[in-house]
């Protein structure tokens, strides 16, 4: 899913991104960082899955300084998905939970900004927008299991698009 920096005139919800922290992100997954507490930090979410594990590198362009309009999100029912940026620079992470029927819950959408030295692992079934670079082009390592079935990735249009801003973006009030 490619970032969409679309500036359509239709109505959308405003959302200010917050700093990415382990406690703030816990219901969606894990923040990958050492925090300087130890030489090695292990993570509880499993990278391995019952499916065929895959690792690849995506090149991502910087998003618009105007903010990001989120109109579509995806989830992966069969696997966690991990993103590890290869260059220093802030990234935007937009996530949401499912409602009781398994559909995207627009009321639960949250946005986070990495500090330039963090990655994330999304839990299986967590809705998310494209991992988006803010400070310039980047490359990101992606780790995910694939079953080869159409259900590996589920895409949904957001019923009410969300305009995400962050400190320093032109949409920042």
Automatic annotation (TrEMBL):
**Keyword annotations:** Lyase, Purine metabolism
Q: Which InterPro entries does this UniProt record tie to the protein?
A: RmlC_Cupin_sf (IPR011051), UAH_cupin (IPR047233), Ureidogly_lyase (IPR007247), Ureidoglycolate_lyase_dom_sf (IPR024060)
Does the record bear Lyase in its keywords?
yes
Catalytic activity annotation: (S)-ureidoglycolate = urea + glyoxylate
Q: Give GO terms for biological process.
A: allantoin catabolic process; purine nucleobase metabolic process
Annotated PANTHER family: UREIDOGLYCOLATE HYDROLASE, UREIDOGLYCOLATE LYASE
Q: How does it assemble?
A: Homodimer.
UniProt name for this protein:
Ureidoglycolate lyase
Organism expressing this protein natively: Achromobacter aloeverae
């Amino acid at each position: 899913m490619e970032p969409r920096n679309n500036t359509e005139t239709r109505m959308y919800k405003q959302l200010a991104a917050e700093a990415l922290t382990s406690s703030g992100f816990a219901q969606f997954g894990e923040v990958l960082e050492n925090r300087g507490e130890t030489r090695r930090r292990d993570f509880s979410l499993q990278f391995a899955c019952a499916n065929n594990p895959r690792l690849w590198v995506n090149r991502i362009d910087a998003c618009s300084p105007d903010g990001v309009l989120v109109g579509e999100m995806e989830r992966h029912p069969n696997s966690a998905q991990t993103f590890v940026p290869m260059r220093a620079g802030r990234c935007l992470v937009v996530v949401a939970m499912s409602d009781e029927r398994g559909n995207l819950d627009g009321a639960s959408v949250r946005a986070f900004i990495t500090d330039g030295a963090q990655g994330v692992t999304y839990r299986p079934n967590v809705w998310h927008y494209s991992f988006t670079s803010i400070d310039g082009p980047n490359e990101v390592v992606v780790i995910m299991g694939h079953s080869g079935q159409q259900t590996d990735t589920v895409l949904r249009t957001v019923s009410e698009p969300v305009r995400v801003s962050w400190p320093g973006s032109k949409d920042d009030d």
